[in-house]
Amino acid sequence: MSAAETTATTATGGLAVEGVYTAYDKADVLEDVTLEAQPGKITCLLGSNGSGKTTLIRSVLGLTRPNRGRIRFDGVDLTGLPTHRIVAAGIACIPEGRQVFPKLTVEENLRLGAYQEPNPDVVARRLEKVYGTFPRLKERQAQIAGTLSGGEQAMVSIGRGLMSAPKLLIVDEPSLGLAPILVKENFNIIRRINGDGITVFLVEQNVRQTLAIADYGYVLRKGRVVAAGTPGELGRTQEVHAAYFGQGR
Amino acid sequence: MDVGLLGQYVMNGLMLGMMYALVAVGFTLFFGVMDIINFAHGDVLTVGAFAALATILGLAGIGVDSPWIQLAGATLVAVTTMAALGAVIARTLVLPLKGAPPLNTLLITLMLGTALHEGVRLFYPQGANPQRFPSLLPTDAYSFGHFTLRIDSLLVLTTGLLLIVGIHLLINRTKLGLAIRAVAQDEDTAKTMGINYTLIVLATFAIGSGLAAFAGVLHGLYYSEVNFAMGLLLGVIGFSAAIVGGLGNIYGAILGGFLFSALQTIGVLAMPFASAYKDVFAFAVVILIMAWRPTGLISEKISQRV
Ligand SMILES: Nc1ncnc2c1ncn2[C@@H]1O[C@H](COP(=O)(O)OP(=O)(O)OP(=O)(O)O)[C@@H](O)[C@H]1O
Ligand SMILES: [Mg+2]
Fold it and tell me: In A23, B8, B27, B215, which residue has its Cα 20 to 30 A from B222's Cα atom?
């Protein structure tokens, strides 16, 4: 995450989802989803409520196993691996609803983000970097995370996602429930993270602001990819409007 | 009442409370990470105590006479084998039944517990009868009026209390403890942090079961006797202690353990003519506390769910 750690000559962190089908118990959700997050880029996934965006993320992370299809990361097949091995490959996630551990302190939450990093000095350095980005968290490092405000919890969740110095950061609706000013700040942070060389896969409902920072995007509808393209192309497609303002999911 | 006699009661109450707390911590850890009740837990304690006894007799049989070595060997064998058994229970019964109704896990662990103590009864030589547990600790005693302070009791109590402090430090000060707490709070997010979920569940069961074995050894040392049914009442009391303290919270479990022994002691003191009723009294009070605070004194998981 620090410049020294990520200034690779060739960008890494490319994710490829190939023909993925995922279901919960009986409900089929994803059908034949194929998409790609190019290394070093911001790729966004748009889609209305219930279209399967979070399910796709859960499939990538191995939290819900796909029934069919492949998931590759920098060419390595991750399909069917347990989540901790997928994380070890260099993927981190800022989950929907932030999901801070409510009874742990801010610092414990952040340290969990670097759970697989064995070197305490490296963890300490990353912690300082996160506190540099979010000075508010430093003031509150010993506070129980469940008592933080929504905005502060969002900072914890973002900081925690960065603590593993991932190659790919998956972000699921970071601006949900935040005030407009914080939403704007969130998008700036995501742009900065990407500027540090981290590939970003961003799920969002704020179509306009998302397309403003993304390099490429996909639209999911009823578990299928119905459109793909550059922000300029997507902005003009009917699918984006249909997905958000049209006939529901 | 005589001060010395009171001292004796307090000592005995602390001793029992320590053992109940050690058992209760296991129940609460298992519930924390897996949301299940492991009804074989008390019987794991029994098997641990018998494993210790067999080790002591075995060491004596091959000519190892030092009581300290016998004790160290017995404790080591009991704790490691029961920790391994706990991990095996988690791997083969609890994890595979994860998606099943909780009642199924409850029933399976109940059956396993029965198999364990029946196994001891049938396969341990003379297993149906109580077995003498050798007094391996120094038995020097100091009398203060009616209060006799025995060194062995003091050592047992101190060891148990240190174990409780140790488990507190493990849970709160180590990376493993942090991972256990993370898994207990939010399984999926814990996995997303890169925590090996299966490993943490196995480790938690190993720790809880190892603690039960240790409690079994301490119980044997204190009462100089073990029997195949010792884990039944200890299991029920440990479980009640965990619940009344607030299932899922280790301080609740510790509090519950000492509360239960305090109630038993009060029961004895208040009804000296009918001290056999002390358990009836203690359980009755626990039931009343549960009616007053259904989620336990320090409620953990349930309040979080609402
Ligand atoms: N654990 C689950 N069990 C059963 N069905 C689920 C589960 N999680 C999600 N679903 C269903 O799968 C479908 C897709 O849900 P998903 O959460 O992936 O949508 P989403 O695109 O992330 O929506 P949102 O924008 O509201 O977050 C929905 O119909 C939802 O009800
Ligand atoms: Mg979602």
Answer: B27
A71-102 pLDDT, tens digit per residue, is: 999 999 999 999 999 999 999 999 999 999 99
Q: Is the dihedral of CA B14, B40, B236, B25 positive or negative?
A: positive
- Per-residue model confidence as pLDDT tens digits over A172-198: 998 888 888 888 988 999 999 999 999
Per DSSP (E only), the strands in chain A are: 15-24, 27-37, 42-46, 68-73, 76-77, 91-94, 168-172, 199-203, 216-221, 224-229
What is the residue with the minimal CA distance to atom 18 of ligand 1? A52
The pTM assigned to this predicted structure is: 0.92
Helix (H) or strand (E) holding B173: helix B151-173
CB spacing of A112 vs B193 below 8 angstroms: yes
Question: Which residues 124-163 in chain A show a CB within 8 A of chain B?
Answer: 160
Listed as ranges, residues in chain A with pLDDT below 70 are 1-10, 243-249
DSSP state of A21: E
Domains of chain A, CATH where assigned = 14-90+166-243 (3.40.50.300), 99-164 (no CATH)
Q: A56: how many CB neighbours lie within 10 A of its CB?
A: 30
Which stretches of B191-282 are assigned E, i.e. beta strand? 225-226
What's the gap in Å between the CA of A175 and the closest CA on chain B?
A: 19
Pick the residue whose CA is nearest to atom 28 on ligand 1.
A50
Res. B209 pLDDT band, cuts 50 70 90: very high
In this prediction the ipTM stands at: 0.92
Report the C-alpha gap between A1 and B194 in whole angstroms: 17
Q: What is the mean pLDDT of residues B109-124?
A: 96
- What letter does residue B251 receive in the DSSP assignment? H
